Each structure stands twice: as structure tokens, then as C-alpha cells.
């Protein structure tokens, strides 16, 4: 017959964790807590570096709000994720800011949304931005960025929207943009881009919006444009395209 141990006996002999187990638990908790705060500290440093590159903030949006005395997640334009409490979105659009993009912005490893359109940012885009592998939406439109469109945009494999309109970009459209298999919107209008449209661009079969207007593009439209079965808006005006094919496409757009 099975003998049951009286509850009183169990209570009389409490079980304790060995001392080294308590030490291990506290050490583990300390590492987790330290990692959490060191990570958000990295995000804070990255944003403060960006702030230091702002030379004109007429409405004092960042000057009065981005302060170490408050949580990064409460700063204007900043959104943090609920799970990791890291910066996931940065929206500084239409703030009339003037400055350049700090290379430390690439340290925001959880950033998925970056919108700084309609400001006066200038200079080139730092290659350190390639560290932002979670990026889904980039809007640098209506600024004064210059130089060639970076070929390393192809590193943003999760990218769904890319807007570079109304800047001073020169050179050709990088063929590497064709590697952005999830891209849905691409706006390169109102720049100084030249050359031909690379046929690789039409490998982006998720595209539903494509604007290349007001540039210096030339030649004929690649036949691969037929691969874009989801395309709803195609804007190519004010370039130097030629041939009957272009006229047919233009007619199709405006019907």
C-alpha cells in the first residue's frame, strides 16, 4: 500500500534553494536589466547625435523636448515598441529642421520607420544606415540631399516604401534596387537623375506606385515593365524618354 507523507511533515521540512542558485538568479536578472537599459541608452545616444547635427530648429521641437531628463520613448517624433522598449519609428517630418544625418543613426537597430520629409537636411546619406535591417519605410523627400542614390539601399530587404523626391540626387538609378522584393512604393521624382531605367527595377513585383517624374532619364521603357501587374500609378513625365512604347504607356496612364 502506498504511504502518503503527512502535509505537516512537508511543512516542517521546507525546501531551500542552494546559495549558489540565488546568486545565479540575481546575476541573470542583473544581466537582463543591464541589457535593457544599455540598449535604450544606445538609442538615446544615437538620437542625441542626430540632434547635435541639427543646425537650425526654429520651433525648438528638439531643443526643448529631446532631453536626458525624460525617457527617450516620450520624445517628440519617437515611437518605442511595447515588447523591447526600443525605438521603432522616428517621424521628424515638416519640422523645418536644417542639418545633416548623423552616422550614429545606424545604431537604432530596431528602427523600422524613418520619416524626415519636408525639412532642409542636406549632404549625403551615411552608409551606417545599412545597419537598419528592420527598415520598412524611408521618406527623405523634400530635402536637399545630394550625391548619387546609394546602391546600398538594397540592404533594406524588408523595405516597402522609399521616397527620395525633391532632392538633388544625381547619377543613375541603382540596379540594386531591383533586389527589394517587398517594395510597394518608390518615388524618385524631382531630382537630377540621368541614364536609363534599369530593367532590374521591374523585378520589384509588389510595386503599386512608381514616380520618376522631372529628371533627365532617357531611352526607352524596358519591356519588363509588364511584370508590374500590381502597378496602379506610374508617373514618368518631364524626362527624355522616346519611342512609341513610351507614348502608349503615357496614354494608358491617363485613360
Please explain how this structure is put together.
The protein is globular and about 60 Å long. It has a single domain, classed as Alpha-Beta Horseshoe (Leucine-rich repeat, LRR (right-handed beta-alpha superhelix)). The relative contact order is 0.08. About 11% of the residues have low confidence. 22% of the residues lie in helices and 21% in strands. With 255 residues, it is of the alpha/beta class. It starts with 6 loop residues before the first helix and ends with a helix.
Notable traits:
255 residues; alpha/beta; Leucine-rich repeat, LRR (right-handed beta-alpha superhelix); 8-stranded mixed beta sheet; 4 helices
Amino acid at each position: 500500500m502506498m504511504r502518503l507523507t503527512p502535509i505537516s511533515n512537508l511543512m516542517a521540512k521546507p525546501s531551500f534553494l542552494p546559495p549558489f542558485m540565488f546568486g545565479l538568479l540575481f546575476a541573470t536578472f542583473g544581466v537582463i536589466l543591464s541589457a535593457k537599459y544599455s540598449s535604450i541608452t544606445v538609442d538615446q545616444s544615437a538620437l542625441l547625435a542626430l540632434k547635435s547635427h541639427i543646425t537650425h530648429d526654429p520651433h525648438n521641437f528638439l531643443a526643448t523636448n529631446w532631453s536626458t531628463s525624460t525617457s527617450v520613448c516620450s520624445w517628440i517624433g519617437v515611437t518605442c515598441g511595447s515588447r523591447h522598449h526600443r525605438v521603432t519609428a522616428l517621424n521628424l517630418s515638416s519640422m523645418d529642421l536644417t542639418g545633416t544625418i548623423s552616422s550614429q543613426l545606424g545604431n537604432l537597430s530596431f528602427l523600422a520607420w524613418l520619416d524626415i520629409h519636408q525639412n532642409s537636411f542636406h549632404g549625403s546619406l551615411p552608409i551606417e544606415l545599412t545597419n537598419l535591417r528592420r527598415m520598412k519605410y524611408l521618406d527623405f523627400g523634400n530635402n536637399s540631399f545630394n550625391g548619387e542614390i546609394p546602391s546600398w539601399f538594397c540592404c533594406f530587404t524588408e523595405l516597402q516604401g522609399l521616397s527620395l523626391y525633391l532632392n538633388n540626387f544625381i547619377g543613375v538609378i541603382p540596379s540594386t534596387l531591383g533586389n527589394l522584393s517587398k517594395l510597394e512604393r518608390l518615388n524618385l521624382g524631382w531630382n537630377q537623375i540621368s541614364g536609363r531605367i534599369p530593367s532590374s527595377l521591374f523585378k520589384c513585383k509588389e510595386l503599386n506606385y512608381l514616380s520618376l517624374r522631372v529628371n533627365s532619364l532617357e531611352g526607352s521603357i524596358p519591356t519588363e515593365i509588364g511584370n508590374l501587374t500590381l502597378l496602379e500609378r506610374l508617373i514618368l513625365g518631364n524626362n527624355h524618354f522616346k519611342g512609341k512604347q513610351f507614348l502608349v504607356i503615357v496614354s494608358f496612364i491617363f485613360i
